[in-house]
């Protein structure tokens, strides 16, 4: 084997190793990506069930239903963005600041029946704060213009 051919084989082996390492790294990152969506995004994109997502919006008035399932608190409520809403089911203790008409971000996955099964619920910390993603989604949907004042209360809270 000539010196030139040996260098070519070494270069090809290094390229194959680098390509494999890059592919493995990208595959690991794609499993850990969590996208933020609002109910309108879910309705428009027809997202497949089973993918982990962050769902944000406002808790609709009159939609919170609490129960105890297998000795653990369970809650069902609707999260809306002014145009669409989605039912969220959560098993566990809700944050103290969770209430109707407040902005929330939930982490979970879309179920085959169209509901959102949350594994984590995050609530805002005071009356002036709204998660940036929720505020951006309300602006995009045309439900809120910051120049016209604070975000509107959801239907039933006015």
Summarize the structure in words.
This protein has 158 residues and is an alpha+beta fold. Helix content is 29%, strand content 30%. The protein has 3 helices and 7 strands. It has a 5-stranded mixed beta barrel with strand order 2-4-5-7-6. The longest helix has 30 residues. The chain is elongated, with a radius of gyration of 23 Å. The mean pLDDT is 82.
Low-confidence stretches: none
Secondary-structure-derived class:
alpha+beta
Largest sheet: 5 strands, mixed, barrel
**Strands in their spatial order, largest beta sheet:** 2-4-5-7-6
Overall morphology: elongated
SSE pattern, N- to C-terminal: HEHEEEEEEH
Assembly classification: single chain
- N-C termini distance: 83 Å
Percent of residues in helices comes to 25-40%
Topology:
Elements: H1 3-32, E1 35-37, H2 39-45, E2 52-59, E3 65-69, E4 72-80, E5 85-91, E6 103-110, E7 116-123, H3 132-140
Parallel strand pairs: 1-2, 5-7
Antiparallel strand pairs: 2-4, 2-6, 3-4, 4-5, 6-7
């Amino acid at each position: 084997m000539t010196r030139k051919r040996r260098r070519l084989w070494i270069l090809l082996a290094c390229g194959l190793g680098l390509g494999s390492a890059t592919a493995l790294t990208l595959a690991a990152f794609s499993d850990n990506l969590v996208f933020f969506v609002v109910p309108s995004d879910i309705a428009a994109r027809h997202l497949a069930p089973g993918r982990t997502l962050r769902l944000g919006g406002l808790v609709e008035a009159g939609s919170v239903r609490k129960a105890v399932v297998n000795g653990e608190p369970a809650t069902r409520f609707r999260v809306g963005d002014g145009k669409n809403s989605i039912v969220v089911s959560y098993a566990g203790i809700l944050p103290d600041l969770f209430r109707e008409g407040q902005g929330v971000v939930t982490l979970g996955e879309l179920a085959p029946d169209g509901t959102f099964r949350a594994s984590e619920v995050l609530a805002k910390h005071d009356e002036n704060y709204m998660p940036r993603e929720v505020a951006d989604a309300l602006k995009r949907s045309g439900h809120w213009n910051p120049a016209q004042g604070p975000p509107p209360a959801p239907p039933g809270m006015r």
